[in-house]
User: What shape does this take?
Amino acid sequence: MTFVEDVLLTAAAVFVLTSLVGVFRIVRGPTMPDRVIAVNVVGSNVVIVIALLAAAIGEPGALDIALVYALLNFLLSIAISKFTVERGGVL
Amino acid sequence: MTPREIAVVALLAGGVFFAIVAVVGLVRLPDLYTRAHSTSKSETLGAVLTLAAVTIAFDGGLSTVKTALLLLFMFITNPTAAHAIVRAAAEQGIDPWTEDAEGGEQ
Assistant: This one.
């Protein structure tokens, strides 16, 4: 366990903790767009955690998972924002 | 400490700082539009700095290219998603927070 791996794992732990704080806004967001924004932030944090773990444990294959997760995260935001305004007109 | 380790630690410190700033803004700010502002800017900068650290931590090769592409993708799509959500919220008729609505003077 080298020094860089330790630092990467610590940063991943901090990102997980900030995601858990963001879950507060998902649970208690007064409006639906509040929750979507909080879900988007948590999803971005998950992508970053996957990339950090891929570098820390030496598993470059996990980067593919991170790329697909980022793509789905973006698709979720766009789909929900289009769907709530146009009632599914984009589909 | 080699220069590469110093660069990784510095970029990670910056990324973690901005991620914490984004989450504090997400929890503490008063309405949807200010929260979207906090997350779309601070969270994007935190993500870009952290992924830059991961890019340096991988020593060359295909992994570095993949992480750089992930960085570019998040740099483009994160503000775009926040913009789309906020625009949908505005078209739904959600009013922004003002001093009057808070029960201040006037």
